[in-house]
Amino acid sequence: YTALHASGHAHSVECWQDGALAGGLYGVRLGAAFFGESMFSRRRDASKVALVHLVNGLKRGGFVLLDTQFITAHLARFGAIEIPRERYLLKLHDALNREASWPFS
Fold first, then answer.
1. What does the alpha-carbon distance between residue 103 and residue 78 come to, in Å, rounded to a whole number?
2. C-alpha dihedral sign at 86, 87, 90, 93
3. Of the listed ranges 23-27, 32-36, 78-82, the one predicted with least confidence
4. Which of 13-51 are b and which e, b meaning 16 or more Cβ less than 10 Å from the residue's Cβ?
5. 32-61 pLDDT, tens digit each
6. Between 74 and 71, where is the model more confident?
């Protein structure tokens, strides 16, 4: 199952299997932006399951920016793209000035 935790602006998405933490991710939410900080897996593909769950929830909640810090082949498979700094700053400004609802509460 997937568990979600929130503490102020910090959030985690965790995947559990047979009572043990299998993997997940965590990050920070500001406005309509989510800044992914780290992903981890103790079992194969657990972080990928958490990422899919996160992305679906962010879409439902009206988020407009998911910042992954850098692009990996894994993230590119899910549609992540690198954008120029100027474009990023415009998207960031827009996201920080919007409201989004955390859909996992």
1. 20
2. negative
3. 78-82
4. bbbeeeeeebbbbbbebebbbbbbeebebeeeebbbbbb
5. 999 999 999 999 999 989 999 999 999 999
6. 71
- The total number of residues shown for the chain amounts to 105
**Pairing state of beta strands 20-30 and 10-17?**
antiparallel
What does the alpha-carbon distance between residue 50 and residue 105 come to, in Å, rounded to a whole number?
16
What does the H/E/C string look like for the chain? CEEEEEECCEEEEEEEECCEEEEEEEEEEECCEEEEEEEEECCCCHHHHHHHHHHHHHHHHCCCEEECCCCCHHHHHCCCCCCCHHHHHHHHHHHHCCCCCCCCC
The CA distances from residue 80 to 4, 21, 39, in Å, are 22, 26, 15
Q: How many CA atoms lie within 13 A of 94 on its CB side?
A: 11
